[in-house]
Specification:
heterodimer, A: 366 residues, alpha/beta, Rossmann fold, eight-stranded mixed sheet, four-stranded antiparallel sheet, 12 helices, disordered C terminus, B: 269 residues, five-stranded antiparallel sheet, 11 helices, 23% strand
Chain lengths: 366, 269
């Protein structure tokens, strides 16, 4: 179908997904809340790819699951093609949900081992009534297998007969069987070897071009996200910290993104030796009890008092590059992205609060 | 050049299977010199982990053959199980990918660390405890004294890997073998762990073998690298040379398959 460019395919408005945590006593009372996704607004236009990056536990997968309806939003809205999912009738939901599909990380766990490839791919075709009659469904299954560059003769085989990369292609074919507009790809290549990763990425990009698909591409690898995305969003502890075009990795405007980019290894020994690496101290805080103010303040090397008390709002610059950081404008001085080596004292041993905000505080490994 | 710390000639590992044998490692030879970091790179099933497990004697004798394996002055091919047990941990330390399955879940971290000192160095309880605390501090575990009483499940992934590293370097081994030590970790935690590893290496003068599929990690930490494919070494050399001018088509395709976030180039479709 043809969509006007102005209606986003998917819009998330202040989306929150909280999970109650119970336990402790025998009464099994709710003892806390995991704020997996805590107020996120994003949109994806038709034919576009939004890359979502973040470390484990930041809530990126929960966000993806909320988009396809596998996790129930606590508040906020998921809007598909201008319609709020909450306000849809059951029939509308069934047809709109069909247009939003998902590919999972683990190609071993996401295919039923007791179904043939043909049944796995044919089931959604039948359930949604996209083809009628056994022969038409079989023909569609063969078409879909060819679309993902697998032999149509594989339809009678079982998942265990295939390699990880082939299984991931089956997962993609199953998603395509529903004739979706948007596919949520949750770490689709991180379980695969690099050469297989490259093949699956090429397939995803080709399918997007041929079928006009949109992707919500969730991954922790900056390289694959950069490769496929038109827009990039960075999450930290349930919040969006940065959002923009591909310049997000070139010129990050949030302290966390700078640290993330500087920590990601580059396969070039000469560059690696000269890079300024910002090594964060500590682990990700618990999403049950997130820090006050900016969620990154406990690990941020340049946090000031304001960061500890006031949560920074998302502020978009003229080029639609947004960041939620109080010190965005000072980052080029405090956490420069330059590749030149600068000898610096290590900050690992010092408590964060005692460090003056100068470039000297940043760890540098040569 | 002085004698290598570890010298392997023509190592082969054969796994027996129902449908015939599989050569997991086939004719692998290399040397490791004091103080250097050697990376073994390859995709899953290339034989990189099996190579090192065979050298450490962790696969048993069946199926493992070699012309010679010398490590830290011992003939590892002829060493008995008892001798190997004394060498492992004392002279050659190992870190595995998944710290949760490598640590004993029913023993405290303190017990697992002090055991290293008691078994290998014959230290007393109090001395081992002090050593364990020092070690945890060395690898950056906060409040080391109190954390000795904790069990592995009470540690995060990054902290568990620090404990693993602490155990591996407890006896100041001459060689540290790290098998995908950061693969299960997030990038910011990976950076911390790699930083600790290179710091320890400098401090103790250890040689390190880093097994990894991540070419970015290898580029940052290694001096030399071996590229393995189907049980064989297909290319080896200084990291700078291999990355700048890979000789073999396989290495070239492996390097080309890694998408770069730092460059503006697009992958060819």
């Amino acid at each position: 179908m043809i969509l006007t460019k102005k209606v986003p395919l998917l819009e998330l408005i202040d989306l929150k997904v909280h999970f109650p945590v119970s336990g402790g006593s025998f009464l099994n009372r709710t003892t806390g809340t995991v704020r997996a996704v805590d107020g996120i607004s994003l949109r994806i236009m038709p034919g576009q790819t939004l890359g979502l990056v973040g470390e484990s536990g930041c809530g990126k997968s929960t966000l993806g699951r909320a988009v396809v309806g596998l996790a129930k939003p606590t508040s906020g809205a998921v809007v598909i093609r201008g319609k709020n999912v909450d306000n849809m009738t059951a029939a509308e939901k069934a047809s709109e949900r069909r247009r939003v599909q998902m590919i999972f990380q683990d190609p071993y766990a996401s295919l039923n081992p007791r179904m043939t490839i043909g049944d796995i791919i044919g089931e959604p075709v039948m359930l949604h009534g996209l083809r009628s009659g056994k022969l038409a469904v079989q023909a569609r299954v063969k078409e879909l297998l060819e679309l993902v560059e697998l032999s149509p003769s594989y339809a009678d085989r079982y998942p265990h007969e295939f390699s990880g990369g082939q299984r991931q292609r089956v997962g993609i074919a199953r998603a395509l069987a529903c004739e979706p507009d948007l596919i949520v790809c949750d770490e689709p290549v991180s379980a695969l070897d690099v050469s297989i990763q490259a093949q699956v990425m090429r397939l995803l990009m080709r399918l997007q071009k041929d079928l006009g698909l949109s992707y919500l591409f969730i991954a922790h690898g900056l390289g694959v996200v950069k490769q496929i995305s038109d827009e990039i969003a960075v999450m930290y502890l349930g919040k969006l910290v940065e959002h923009g075009g591909r310049q997000v990795f070139q010129h990050p405007r949030h302290a966390y993104t700078r640290a993330l980019v500087s920590a990601a290894p580059i396969p070039d020994p000469k560059i690696e030796r000269q890079r300024r690496r910002i090594i964060l101290t500590g682990d990700l805080p618990s999403p049950m009890n997130p820090p006050s103010g900016c969620r990154f303040q406990t690990r941020c090397p340049i946090a000031i008092d304001r960061c500890r008390t006031e949560p920074p709002p998302m502020h978009y610059a003229a080029n639609n590059h947004g960041a939620a950081c109080w010190r965005t404008d000072e980052l080029d001085v405090l956490m420069p992205m330059a590749m030149k080596p600068v000898p610096m004292a290590t900050m690992t041993a010092m408590p964060l609060a005692s460090i003056p905000a100068t470039p000297q505080q940043l760890t540098d490994i040569g | 050049m002085t004698d290598p710390l570890l010298s392997i000639r023509n190592l082969a590992v054969r796994f027996r299977g129902e449908r015939g044998d599989t050569m997991a490692v086939d004719g692998v030879s290399f040397d490791l010199h004091a103080g250097e970091t050697l990376a073994i790179v390859g995709e899953s099933g290339s034989g990189k982990s099996v190579t090192m497990l065979a050298v450490m004697g962790l696969l048993g004798k069946a199926g493992v053959s070699a012309d010679s394996i010398f490590g830290c002055g011992h003939d590892l091919l002829k060493a008995s199980d008892v001798e190997m047990r004394a060498i492992r941990g004392r002279q050659i330390g190992m870190i595995f990918q998944d710290p949760m399955t490598s640590l004993n879940p029913v023993l405290t971290i303190g017990r697992q660390l002090t055991e290293m000192f008691e078994i290998h160095l014959g230290l007393s309880g109090a001395a081992s405890r002090k050593g364990a605390i020092d070690l945890l501090k060395l690898v950056g575990v906060p409040s080391a004294e109190t954390r000795l009483k904790d069990y592995p499940h009470q540690f995060s992934g990054g902290m568990r890997q620090r404990v693993m590293i602490a155990m591996a370097v407890a006896c100041k081994p001459q060689i540290l073998i790290a098998d995908e030590p950061t693969t299960a970790l997030d990038v910011t935690i990976q950076a911390q762990i790699l930083d600790i590893l290179s710091g320890l290496q400098r401090e103790f003068g250890m040689a390190m073998i880093m097994i990894s599929h991540d070419l970015g990690v290898v580029a940052g930490i290694a001096d030399r690298m071996l590229v393995m494919h189907s049980g064989r070494i297909v290319e080896q050399g200084l990291v700078d040379d291999v990355f700048a001018a890979p000789k073999m088509p396989y290495t070239r395709s492996l390097l080309a398959a890694v998408p770069r976030f730092d460059l503006e180039t697009e992958m060819t479709r």
